[in-house]
Protein backbone atom coordinates (compact mmCIF):
# COMPACT_ATOMS: atom_id res chain seq x y z
CA UNK A 1 0.00 0.00 0.00
CA UNK A 2 1.15 3.54 -0.67
CA UNK A 3 2.51 4.76 2.67
CA UNK A 4 1.63 8.39 1.89
CA UNK A 5 -2.05 7.49 1.55
CA UNK A 6 -2.28 5.58 4.83
CA UNK A 7 -3.82 7.22 7.87
CA UNK A 8 -1.52 8.48 10.61
CA UNK A 9 0.05 5.39 12.14
CA UNK A 10 0.91 5.71 15.80
CA UNK A 11 2.87 3.55 18.21
CA UNK A 12 2.45 4.07 21.97
CA UNK A 13 5.09 3.32 24.61
CA UNK A 14 3.21 3.62 27.88
CA UNK A 15 2.82 1.47 31.00
CA UNK A 16 -0.42 3.02 32.25
CA UNK A 17 -3.52 1.21 30.95
CA UNK A 18 -5.60 4.32 31.50
CA UNK A 19 -3.33 6.62 29.52
CA UNK A 20 -2.94 3.99 26.78
CA UNK A 21 -6.71 3.74 26.47
CA UNK A 22 -7.05 7.51 26.39
CA UNK A 23 -4.41 7.84 23.67
CA UNK A 24 -5.94 5.00 21.65
CA UNK A 25 -9.31 6.72 21.77
CA UNK A 26 -7.73 10.06 20.75
CA UNK A 27 -5.82 8.44 17.86
CA UNK A 28 -8.95 6.70 16.53
CA UNK A 29 -11.10 9.82 16.93
CA UNK A 30 -8.52 11.76 14.92
CA UNK A 31 -8.74 9.19 12.10
CA UNK A 32 -5.38 7.68 12.92
CA UNK A 33 -4.44 4.08 13.52
CA UNK A 34 -2.75 2.54 16.54
CA UNK A 35 -0.22 0.14 15.05
CA UNK A 36 1.19 -1.13 18.31
CA UNK A 37 1.87 -0.48 21.96
CA UNK A 38 4.36 -1.57 24.60
CA UNK A 39 4.75 -1.06 28.32
CA UNK A 40 8.51 -1.63 28.41
CA UNK A 41 11.51 -0.20 26.55
CA UNK A 42 12.73 -3.60 25.39
CA UNK A 43 9.35 -4.61 23.94
CA UNK A 44 9.00 -1.24 22.21
CA UNK A 45 12.46 -1.36 20.64
CA UNK A 46 11.89 -4.94 19.50
CA UNK A 47 8.53 -4.16 17.88
CA UNK A 48 9.71 -0.89 16.34
CA UNK A 49 12.35 -2.76 14.38
CA UNK A 50 9.49 -4.17 12.30
CA UNK A 51 6.97 -1.33 12.40
CA UNK A 52 7.28 1.99 10.62
CA UNK A 53 4.86 4.33 12.42
CA UNK A 54 4.67 8.01 11.58
CA UNK A 55 4.37 9.03 15.23
CA UNK A 56 5.66 7.43 18.44
CA UNK A 57 4.28 8.57 21.79
CA UNK A 58 6.71 7.77 24.58
CA UNK A 59 6.34 7.84 28.35
CA UNK A 60 9.61 8.11 30.26
CA UNK A 61 8.64 5.92 33.23
CA UNK A 62 7.86 2.41 31.99
CA UNK A 63 7.17 -1.00 33.50
CA UNK A 64 10.81 -1.79 32.79
CA UNK A 65 13.46 0.33 31.17
CA UNK A 66 12.77 3.96 30.33
CA UNK A 67 11.57 6.11 27.47
CA UNK A 68 15.12 7.42 27.13
CA UNK A 69 16.20 3.95 25.96
CA UNK A 70 13.51 4.04 23.28
CA UNK A 71 14.58 7.53 22.15
CA UNK A 72 18.19 6.39 22.05
CA UNK A 73 17.23 3.41 19.85
CA UNK A 74 15.32 5.74 17.52
CA UNK A 75 18.25 8.13 17.29
CA UNK A 76 21.22 5.80 17.12
CA UNK A 77 19.83 2.35 16.41
CA UNK A 78 18.14 3.14 13.13
CA UNK A 79 14.80 2.01 14.54
CA UNK A 80 11.56 3.39 13.02
CA UNK A 81 13.50 5.85 10.89
CA UNK A 82 11.56 9.00 10.02
CA UNK A 83 9.04 8.65 12.84
CA UNK A 84 8.24 11.71 14.94
CA UNK A 85 9.14 10.98 18.56
CA UNK A 86 6.90 12.64 21.14
CA UNK A 87 7.52 12.36 24.87
CA UNK A 88 4.32 12.37 26.95
CA UNK A 89 5.17 12.01 30.61
CA UNK A 90 4.67 13.08 34.20
CA UNK A 91 8.44 12.90 34.63
CA UNK A 92 8.79 16.41 33.31
CA UNK A 93 11.71 18.10 35.05
CA UNK A 94 13.89 20.43 33.00
CA UNK A 95 16.66 17.82 32.75
CA UNK A 96 14.18 15.22 31.44
CA UNK A 97 13.01 17.65 28.79
CA UNK A 98 16.57 18.56 27.78
CA UNK A 99 17.71 14.94 27.68
CA UNK A 100 14.69 13.99 25.56
CA UNK A 101 15.45 16.69 23.00
CA UNK A 102 19.13 15.68 22.97
CA UNK A 103 17.98 12.14 22.16
CA UNK A 104 15.97 13.40 19.22
CA UNK A 105 12.46 13.92 20.60
CA UNK A 106 10.51 16.37 18.44
CA UNK A 107 8.02 17.34 21.14
CA UNK A 108 7.80 17.03 24.92
CA UNK A 109 4.50 17.25 26.78
CA UNK A 110 3.90 17.16 30.52
CA UNK A 111 0.90 14.87 31.07
CA UNK A 112 -0.32 16.91 34.02
CA UNK A 113 -0.40 20.27 32.30
CA UNK A 114 -0.14 19.68 28.54
CA UNK A 115 -2.44 16.72 27.90
CA UNK A 116 -4.67 18.64 25.53
CA UNK A 117 -1.70 19.95 23.58
CA UNK A 118 -0.53 16.38 23.01
CA UNK A 119 -3.99 15.41 21.74
CA UNK A 120 -4.07 18.50 19.52
CA UNK A 121 -0.77 17.40 17.97
CA UNK A 122 -2.25 13.96 17.19
CA UNK A 123 -5.27 15.67 15.58
CA UNK A 124 -3.07 18.02 13.60
CA UNK A 125 -0.78 15.28 12.30
CA UNK A 126 -3.74 13.05 11.40
CA UNK A 127 -5.40 15.93 9.54
CA UNK A 128 -2.16 16.68 7.68
CA UNK A 129 -1.95 13.07 6.52
CA UNK A 130 -5.59 13.11 5.43
CA UNK A 131 -4.88 16.30 3.49
CA UNK A 132 -1.90 14.72 1.80
CA UNK A 133 -3.93 11.62 0.92
CA UNK A 134 -6.75 13.70 -0.57
CA UNK A 135 -4.30 15.73 -2.64
CA UNK A 136 -2.89 12.49 -4.03
CA UNK A 137 -6.37 11.18 -4.73
CA UNK A 138 -7.56 14.33 -6.52
CA UNK A 139 -6.63 13.94 -10.23
CA UNK A 140 -6.74 17.69 -10.87
CA UNK A 141 -4.27 18.31 -8.07
CA UNK A 142 -2.21 15.35 -9.21
CA UNK A 143 -2.02 16.86 -12.69
CA UNK A 144 -0.98 20.21 -11.30
CA UNK A 145 -4.30 21.92 -12.05
CA UNK A 146 -5.48 22.33 -8.46
CA UNK B 1 12.30 7.95 48.10
CA UNK B 2 11.49 4.24 47.99
CA UNK B 3 11.04 3.02 44.39
CA UNK B 4 7.64 1.45 45.09
CA UNK B 5 6.34 4.72 46.53
CA UNK B 6 7.41 6.83 43.56
CA UNK B 7 5.98 4.21 41.16
CA UNK B 8 2.61 4.43 42.88
CA UNK B 9 2.78 8.23 42.85
CA UNK B 10 3.30 8.15 39.09
CA UNK B 11 0.25 5.89 38.77
CA UNK B 12 -1.78 8.48 40.69
CA UNK B 13 -0.49 11.26 38.45
CA UNK B 14 -1.25 9.24 35.30
CA UNK B 15 -4.79 8.60 36.50
CA UNK B 16 -5.35 12.25 37.37
CA UNK B 17 -3.90 13.39 34.03
CA UNK B 18 -6.32 11.05 32.21
CA UNK B 19 -9.20 12.29 34.34
CA UNK B 20 -8.35 15.89 33.51
CA UNK B 21 -8.50 15.12 29.80
CA UNK B 22 -11.66 13.00 30.07
CA UNK B 23 -13.43 15.80 31.92
CA UNK B 24 -12.31 18.40 29.33
CA UNK B 25 -10.83 20.53 32.10
CA UNK B 26 -9.01 22.74 29.58
CA UNK B 27 -11.93 23.12 27.21
CA UNK B 28 -13.16 26.61 26.35
CA UNK B 29 -16.64 25.32 25.59
CA UNK B 30 -19.47 26.93 27.56
CA UNK B 31 -20.81 24.64 30.28
CA UNK B 32 -24.16 24.00 28.62
CA UNK B 33 -22.42 22.97 25.38
CA UNK B 34 -20.31 20.28 27.00
CA UNK B 35 -21.58 16.73 26.79
CA UNK B 36 -19.63 13.94 28.43
CA UNK B 37 -20.18 10.68 26.58
CA UNK B 38 -20.82 7.43 28.43
CA UNK B 39 -17.41 6.20 27.26
CA UNK B 40 -15.67 9.25 28.65
CA UNK B 41 -17.63 9.01 31.90
CA UNK B 42 -16.58 5.38 32.29
CA UNK B 43 -12.97 6.23 31.47
CA UNK B 44 -13.09 9.02 34.06
CA UNK B 45 -14.47 6.59 36.64
CA UNK B 46 -11.74 4.06 35.79
CA UNK B 47 -9.15 6.81 36.26
CA UNK B 48 -10.61 7.66 39.67
CA UNK B 49 -10.58 4.01 40.74
CA UNK B 50 -6.97 3.66 39.58
CA UNK B 51 -5.92 6.79 41.52
CA UNK B 52 -7.73 5.61 44.64
CA UNK B 53 -6.16 2.15 44.44
CA UNK B 54 -2.69 3.64 44.05
CA UNK B 55 -3.25 6.06 46.95
CA UNK B 56 -4.43 3.18 49.12
CA UNK B 57 -1.26 1.23 48.31
CA UNK B 58 0.82 4.32 49.04
CA UNK B 59 -0.82 4.81 52.40
CA UNK B 60 -0.14 1.17 53.28
CA UNK B 61 3.50 1.53 52.22
CA UNK B 62 3.94 4.68 54.27
CA UNK B 63 2.34 2.96 57.25
CA UNK B 64 4.86 0.16 56.82
CA UNK B 65 2.21 -2.45 56.06
CA UNK B 66 2.99 -5.25 53.62
CA UNK B 67 2.17 -4.40 50.00
CA UNK B 68 -0.82 -6.05 48.40
Structure commentary:
- The complex is a heterodimer of chains A (146) and B (68).
- Chain A is of the alpha/beta class.
- Helices cover 49% and strands 17% of the residues of chain A.
- Chain A contains 6 helices and 5 strands, in the order βαβαβαβαβαα.
- Chain A has helices spanning 17-29, 41-48, 67-76, 94-102, 111-137, 139-142; strands at residues 9-13, 33-38, 55-58, 84-89, 107-110.
- Chain A has a 5-stranded parallel sheet with strand order 2-1-3-4-5, with helices on both faces.
- In chain A, α4 (94-102) links the parallel β4 and β5 (107-110).
- In chain A, α1 runs parallel beside α5 and α2 packs parallel to α3 (67-76).
- With 68 residues, chain B is an all-alpha fold.
- In chain B, 66% of the residues lie in helices and 0% in strands.
- Chain B has 2 helices and no strands.
- Chain B starts with a helix and ends in a 6-residue tail after the last helix.
- The chains are: A alpha/beta (146), B mainly alpha (68).
- The interface between A and B is medium-sized, with 15 and 19 residues.
Amino acid sequence: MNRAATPLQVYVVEDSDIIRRLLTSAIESAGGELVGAADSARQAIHQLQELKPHLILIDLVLASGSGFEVLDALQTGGVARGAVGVVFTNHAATEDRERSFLLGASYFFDKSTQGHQALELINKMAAERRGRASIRADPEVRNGQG
Amino acid sequence: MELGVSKELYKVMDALAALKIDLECESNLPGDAMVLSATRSRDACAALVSAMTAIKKLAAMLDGEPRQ
